Amino acid sequence: MAAQECHLTALVLVSVVAAILGSLQVGYHTGTVNAPAKIIEEFFNQTWRHRYNETMPGESLTLLWSLSVSIKDFGSLLGCLGVKFVADNFGRRNSILIVNCLSVVGATLMVVSKVSESFETLILGRLLFGLFCGLVMSLNPLYIQEVSPTLLRGAFATLNQVAYASGILLGMVSGLETMLGTKELWPVMMSLSLIPALVQYLVMPFCPESPRYLLINKGQEDEADAALLRLRGCPEPVQAELEEMKAEAAHIQASVGVLDFFRKRSYRQPIIIVLCVNLGSQLSGFNAIINYSTRMFQANFEEAKYLTLGVGAVNVIFTLVAFFLMEKAGRRRLLLMGFVIIATCNLLLTVIDLLVQTVPELGSFQVLLVFSLISAYELGPGPISWFIAGELFDQPGRSIGMAYASMLNWGGKFLLALLFPPIYKVIGGFSYLLFMAMAVMGFAFTWFRVPETKGRTFDEIAEEFRGAENLPMHNKNGFNTFH
Q1: What's the predicted TM-score (pTM) here?
Q2: Is the CB of residue 395 less than 8 Å from the CB of residue 249?
Q3: Which helix or strand (DSSP H or E) is residue 25 part of?
Q4: Residue 356 three-state SS
Q5: Cα dihedral sign for 161, 163, 164, 166?
Q6: What is the domain partition of the chain in residue ranges?
Q7: Which of 65, 158, 262, 417 could form a disulfide with 70 if both were Cys (CB 3.0 to 4.6 A apart)?
Q8: Which class for 137: exposed (0-12), middle (13-18), buried (19 or more C-beta within 10 A)?
Q9: Per-residue confidence in pLDDT tens, the chain, 483 aa
Q10: Quick one: which of 288, 467, 320 has its CA closest to 394?
């Protein structure tokens, strides 16, 4: 019992918190584009008038704004391609520090765009920041899971989503007209992400490298032993974890290339699981609401921006709920619960959208449904979709698996940010039925195929896939359970 008690140390907490400062930055620039949308659109218009002495056509302005919102997610998609290279060559911790410079440069470009009277600079800044997003949202769970004790691995990985949601809320607050969302101060709003970026540079160099990376990727047993001893605080759990890492290393090949990753038979089930969980999660409507909630509420409420702030607050609250439930309820149960609530909310949102013009009182119910959908997403599908790949793949495939999951995440966000406005314009509230269909797919796939990974070591999970290459996962007794 004493060994178990000394698993959690202050250094583990500091290492996790230092890592998630990157996710805080990602969330912040996701939240800043919602409330001050009209102000930044006016900046685009002003710049156009100064250059061409005419007002920008409405269609062009809409397209440019959609591009500005979605370019970050497109950059994130590109950033995912570099995850394996930096993570396996420079280490998990050092990679986080290296890619942080993209955040600093991107935020700086966004800040100077107004002074330079260049909306292209703002878009370029968001693109570079997007590259950072794609890299860091894979690297963070990778590092966090590899330094965390097994019994807290899922909970600590969920903190990545807590930081992301908190960043969204901070971005929404700073974007209010009463804060920094004004014609004069919006560049200052864009600059605030530089604070956690600089703090990360000050703190993270003192955190240890991932012991799993040192031992399995680099073969540095003494360095891995020292890093693990710093993280755990006493020798008893260190020896047990080192033996578990050596056991995993004995079963795996030294490295896995991208083509090998998709050809390897023991990876087929994890690849399909990550695909379906991420599609069900990212295309279930959450991202459309986060990006366009202010405009959604404006039809029925004068102070729509404050309702959007409520969306951000609910988002944070339920990521914290997920943090406390992750190691009690397990991944599978939270996914099932989240998907079924999301599907129900989308069905009811379709009905409300059809009736709200004739029954305005239903507007309040629409807000309640949006809050419920956000809560259900953050209860399970949201955080789990980001980190489940880190649990399902062994060490050689883990960095590619995280990059793959991240590409699916950011690809879904990019598609929704770009396509939701025109789709909604064409089919209106029926677009929620598309989201409902994705949530139903996520629920059905989770029910039949997604295993429970709570409380299992990386090697135990990998062993199940090595021994079940030709077996449906739901037939494996003791693995795909609620327990």
Answers
A1: 0.86
A2: yes
A3: helix 10-31
A4: coil
A5: positive
A6: 2-207+252-475
A7: 417
A8: buried
A9: 334 444 689 999 999 999 999 999 999 998 887 667 778 888 888 888 888 888 888 778 877 877 887 788 889 889 999 999 999 999 999 999 999 999 999 999 999 998 888 888 999 999 999 999 999 999 999 999 999 998 899 999 999 999 999 998 999 888 888 888 888 888 899 999 999 999 999 999 999 999 999 999 898 999 999 999 999 988 878 888 898 888 888 877 667 888 889 988 889 999 999 999 999 998 998 888 776 666 666 656 666 667 778 888 998 999 999 999 999 999 999 999 999 999 999 999 999 888 877 887 777 888 889 899 999 999 999 999 989 998 999 888 899 999 999 899 888 877 887 788 788 888 888 889 999 999 999 999 999 999 898 888 888 887 777 664 443 444 344 444 433
A10: 467
**Integer Cα distance of 243 and 233 in angstroms:** 17
Superfamily name with CATH number, domain 2-207+252-475: MFS general substrate transporter like domains (1.20.1250.20)
Residue type at position 178 = T
Q: How far is CA 98 from CA 14, 21, 22, 204, 205, in A?
A: 19, 14, 12, 11, 11
425 vs 420: CA distance, rounded Å: 8
Length of the chain counted residue by residue: 483
The CA dihedral of 446, 450, 453, 457, to the nearest 10 degrees, is -160
Rounded distance, CA 5 to CA 3, Å? Answer: 5
Which of 218, 249, 214 lies closest to 228, judged by CA? 214
Q: Which residues, other chains included, contact 454 with Cβ-Cβ below 8 Å and sequence gap of 6+?
A: 154, 326, 327, 330, 331
Place of tokens 């998630």: 20
Contact 446, 335 (CB under 8 A): yes
Q: For residue 470, what are the contacts with CB-CB under 8 A and spacing of at least 6?
A: none
The alpha carbons of the chain give a radius of gyration, in whole angstroms, of 22
Q: What is the DSSP string of 262-314?
A: HH-GGGHHHHHHHHHHHHHHHTSSHHHHHHHHHHHHHTT-TTHHHHHHHHHHH
